[in-house]
Design goal:
Layout lengths: L1 E7 L6 E4 L7 E4 L2 H21 L23 E6 L18 H13 L7 H20 L4
Antiparallel strand pairs: 1-2, 1-4, 2-3
């Protein structure tokens, strides 16, 4: 998942980073690159705690939804990509019904795009999460 991050600086040398979609998640660094690296560590730490508490992993919203927030005025925006898979819980085997043509298309996509989908199950999981993330944005665009 790609989380948008807001970078702030007062002196152009050191940077503070806020992760708007994860309340209380922030970091800093002595350069933009270090700040982004430290933000990734902060995000992973927050997600680990949320998972341990049984809380949902927050969805990453588009930067455009954060720009109107006065807390981020003057921020430089970036993204930090993290693998949220370890925080989603134990895999469970299920039985679903899928039309055979759709199943063949999914399998062909997975075979042709191994960088995008590791397996049929991963593809279906990621597609469902993406659909729910987009639906959540439509339902509550202000957060």
């Amino acid at each position: 998942m790609r989380f948008p991050v807001a970078l702030h600086t007062d002196d152009g040398k050191s940077y503070g980073v806020t992760v708007p979609d994860i309340p209380g998640c922030f970091s800093a660094g002595d350069s933009e690159d270090e700040a982004l690296d430290n933000a990734k560590e902060a995000i992973l730490g927050h997600l680990e705690v949320l998972a341990e508490l049984g809380n949902d992993i927050p969805s990453a919203r588009p930067i455009a939804q954060h720009r109107s927030n006065a807390d981020y005025e003057g921020a430089v925006w970036g993204f930090v990509e993290v693998d949220i898979t370890p925080f989603l819980g134990k895999a469970e085997k299920i039985n679903i019904t899928v039309p055979s043509l759709v199943l063949r298309q999914i399998d062909r996509y997975v075979q042709d795009h191994p960088e995008a989908a590791r397996s049929r199950s991963a593809f279906l999981t990621e597609a469902a999460l993406e659909h729910m993330r987009k639906a959540h944005q439509v339902e509550s665009p202000s957060g």
